[in-house]
Structure of Membrane protein:
Amino acid sequence: MKQSKLSLLLGAAFLMATSAIGPGFLTQTTVFTQTLLASFGFVILMSIILDIGAQMNVWRIIAVSEKRAQDIANMVLPGMGYLVALLIVMGGLAFNIGNVAGAGLGLNVLFGIPAETGALVSAIIAIGIFLVREAGKLMDRFAQIMGFIMIGLTIYVAIVSSPPVGEAVLKTFVPDTIDVLAIVTLVGGTVGGYITFAGGHRLLDAGVKGTAALPEVTKSSTSGIVVVSVMRVVLFLAVLGVVSQGLQLDPANPPASVFQLAAGDVGYKIFGIVIWAAAITSVIGCAYTSVSFIRTFHPALEKSHKWIIIGFIAVSTLVFLVVGRPVKILVLVGALNGLILPITLGIMLIAAYQKKIVGDYKHPVWMTIFGGIVVVSMAIMGIYTLINELPKLMS
């Protein structure tokens, strides 16, 4: 039984982590490191603190209430659950456009085909996987294996690229510049939109719920952030090592060029396999979790949810094929999900103090303050980004 419980906790942590460590994660980290150099360490530090504050609160409240996020929101304010579902699905769609783009970039690396063709082929494969009965278990295990491969490969590249570790540590605490867009994008790409709810809902479905399960829920939620943070730091060092040597990254595919410049053609091809696998996993996980936010609203949605998921993937692919510009999409996606976070987390914090939702449970004051800081800071930075930065990205 203990082994089974541990497996469930790791499953939830990896579901969240592999959702975050997708092509957008790799591209965002590479692009911002290239721009901010060692000062990007400060952005990572801030994002880790905000990530923990958001995820611990959300998972804890879902576990105690024993309800899904949209149902909690509807109890806080009638109709709010539908708004949350709309925001999650819209953000998930944007996120999945980035995932499809990443899959296209992966096949471009491996076979030299256009990113658009690669995206179309990948979408067809993802839809085919959803038609297999046991696809969930298979893809969950595959995602975990690929997660370890990604981290291992990136550690190798970081060592080979010989980054200025001392400077990176210094600038993490004393940065030359503070980039608000980068912070919003990283937090959005790690716990924004549907991502932070994926693991919480997974634990709920697995029966890990109630006040007695809170220590396990906390451990699982922080484990997911630890996995993401390790990958983020290692990739940051790998990119920093390459750009510190004065080498130029390919703007059409920045993370792939990092691996190629550091480890040659072999590294380039292996990276293609990793980013494609990460993208396919994220396409499936994103589509499934996003649709889970609406399938409980009506029996017809529940009955046909598999076809809704397939349609979700198809629409994501079509938008990418029409819009193009995969790198811009991957950077933009995290920012969009960052704008959703203060709304959803704010609802969760209000729910923590409503007896009809959590019963006699007392939410820790320090955790409420922590979560409140995340809500306020992400709201302010999100509005700033919306007004000042997103128009530049879209131009």
Remarks:
- The first helix runs from residue 2 to 20.
- Residues 182 and 375 are 17 Å apart (CA to CA).
